[in-house]
Amino acid sequence: MTSRRDAEKRLGELRRQLQHHNYRYYVLDEPEVPDSEYDRLMRELTVLEKEHPGLVAPDSPSQRVGAAPLKAFGEVRHSVPMLSLDNAFSEEDLLSFDRRVREKLEVEQVEYTTEPKLDGLAISLTYEAGRLTRGATRGDGSTGEDVTQNVRTVKSIPLQLLGQGWPALLEVRGEVYMPKRGFEELNRELAKRGEKTYVNPRNTAAGSLRQLDPRITAARPLEFYAYGLGVVKPDTLPKRHSEILEKLRGWGIRVNRETRQVKGAAGCLEYYAHLGKKRETLPYEIDGVVYKVDRIDWQEELGFVSRAPRWAVAHKFPAQEEMTILKAVDFQVGRTGALTPTARLEPVFVGGVTVSNATLHNMDEVARKDIRVGDTVIVRRAGDVIPEVVGVVLARRLKNAKRVLLPKECPVCGSEVVRPEGEAVARCSGGLVCSAQRKELIRHFASRRALDIEGLGEKLVDQLVEKDLIKTPADVFALTIPELADLERMGEKSAQNLAAGIAGARKTTLPRFLYALGIPEVGEATAQTLAQHFGALEPLMEADAEALQEVPDVGPVVAEEIAAFFRQKHNRAVIAALRKAGVSWPALPKRPASGAQTLAGKTFVLTGTLAAMTRDQAKERITTLGGKVAGSVSKKTSYVVAGSEPGSKLQEAERLGVEVLDEEAFLRLIRA
Ligand code: IVH
Known about the structure:
Blueprint (H helix, E strand, L loop, with lengths): L3 H24 L7 H17 L23 E3 L9 E2 L2 H15 L5 E8 L2 E8 L2 E7 L5 E3 L2 H4 L17 E9 L2 H13 L8 H9 L4 H5 L4 E11 L7 H10 L9 E4 H15 L7 E8 L2 H7 L1 E2 L2 E2 L2 E5 L4 E13 L4 E13 L2 E7 L3 H7 L2 E2 L2 E5 L7 E5 L9 E2 L13 E2 L7 E3 L6 H12 L11 H9 L14 H5 L6 H13 L5 H7 L7 H11 L2 H6 L2 H4 L7 H12 L1 H12 L22 E5 L7 H10 L3 E3 L8 E4 L5 H9 L2 E4 H9 L1
Parallel strand pairs: 2-13, 23-24, 23-25, 25-26
Antiparallel strand pairs: 1-6, 3-9, 3-10, 4-5, 4-7, 7-8, 10-13, 11-12, 14-15, 14-18, 15-16, 15-22, 17-20, 18-19, 21-22
Helix pairs in contact: 1-2, 12-13, 16-17
Bound molecules: 2-(butylsulfanyl)adenosine.
The site of 2-(butylsulfanyl)adenosine (IVH) has 14 residues, from strand 3, strand 8 and strand 13.
């Protein structure tokens, strides 16, 4: 236990820091530190206050929510205070919450409504005689800002309730948020205009709603989900939270579809695990789940403590953003020679793993975010996405923080680094002289979707290139079993297996071969269309940029890249050597007559898993029939094919009104 004197001192520091962060977060919509850091400070504060109850000041951040409203907006008094939620950070926290609830109610088991905890901002909507008359932010919980004009621009907030039977005065509370996709698009747009970008969807939503000019709010993709009530007169509503939500839904108010009812703590934990798995595929950000005692009479019996109800708790997911120190910046050289600045970090636990490297994307990003070596940075790792540095905690910048400079020479081969005017990406000019590029090219060449050489993994490629056993992809086919057996971690048996893998890879297909060559801008889809258009390798190699532009989806930039690739003598030499080494593919069937191109002009997006075929096979079928496969849903998408466990693309399709095919319907279409 901390002495009273030390506790008093530390509490003072914590309160000052938390007040500062509250101001940055709630008033400026510009937090300095990630939520995880804020949560840590708040936890330390509450633990200390629990140890020393005599030191709890009425203005302590533990006793209040949010921050005072901005004067620029009119003030709104909340006659029912807008509270916050207590957090549970672990299973034990949740179990003790449930225990407290049961003990206070003196019952065996409690039914809970479980809801996603959306990461946006709390909003109160007042409906009088069914018409929206006011929208207000939470502010400090008792006084918020009048944002009625802005709230009216949010399309998912009804201006008039549907149906009938609504109470004369109905205050709906919920969260205004910005979907992930809208956030990314907005940031891309802002970056293009050279304007300041937002750090995360939560602050973007808050910043967008608290604009003095409602036209700006109207242009932002904001959405709303309701999760509760404020004042209701007369109170004719059902006596269960879940039924109230259902009622609201009937009146045209959006309620999250992930909402469920569960029994006891076990049900809560099951929901937590279920939603945790789904988190990445949801079209909006959530930072946890909320459990609420379903029976309203029980909620009333449980009541409130200072700033939060006793009948609800937020069970947080592991943080996806953390703070750490940027120790150094290295440059990695990719297959095409692109230099990617990579952050070397003080290891930090984020998104469920320890991260010590993160991408900085390119030098424009480094400059835009003003990232310097020695800075305290915010690292984000969401799902399986590569960790990235999203920003700097400027308040913690040290005087000796060093600017990041693009090296003049390639860190691997010493060749000159070039960065064409106006381009974000800098490249090593060494080509295949550069062993980093060689390694990446060979890895790509051997990868599953290219020549699919079984057993030729990353570490082996590194060794083979470092020992100068392979300089070009064609050298792979000249490797002998003794050479392979001599490599580290290779025995006679694995050398034989690898040799068999290499031999087997000689038989391939033209699209795979084209993709394997690593021509800039030529991905799998383009390789497929090129193969189909030209039918064979030779006419493609002879085609000039103009002829290449006749290929569907090949524009001037891609056409020039392809033509330039085949113009290079050394590339032609590699192709000749590969063919000499026996790499071959079956002749392509003549292009199907246009009658067989039943899917011409149609664009497909695939999501989820199909039972009858792999995703690659589905793609191949679609392109053979003249259709196209795209990676994301837009208004131009003709069909979204949804297999089992579809991702957010399905919701996107529903939102845009794009036709969705289940597997059966898709199979019918491709067989027709
Ligand atoms: S209920 C009295 N339900 O989290 C209970 N809040 O930390 C009030 N939030 O201010 C809140 N999703 O902005 C509730 N399903 C949900 C929520 C939710 C997000 C936010 C809300 C609230 C904050 C509490």
